[in-house]
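worker-3 :: picked Lipoprotein
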Amino acid sequence: MRSSRTGTRQALIATALALLLAACAEYRQPDFVATIHQLRASPESKTLIVTVFGDAGKDGKLCTAVASAKADESPDRIDVKIVLRDVCPVTLAFWESRNRGFGTTTPQDIEVVLQRPLGDREVFDAEGSRVNVERG
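worker-3 :: tokens ->
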């Protein structure tokens, strides 16, 4: 009788551990809105070059990719929103703290093509704050 209970207990522990490991292996950080660090306009003012900071691992590998980059244009303003996605697999938190460069940032330049030239329109970030544009 005792061996039957031990076998059942071991099977339950193994199943719980397998489920936990599978959940951790599949987990991804949610997408997030990037903060605009710098904004430059191309010489013809039809492309905005947006610099944001992404996360990098200790090995220098970039761990963020662009999920979306858009510019909502109106006659007097442009609202720019860059969304980043974490592309490095996430494992257990204690492992991540040793192998990921939390807080290590790497600049990423993202091009956003406008429907019409920038002209004298003002540019705003996703939070509605005006962003200074370096015109080329």
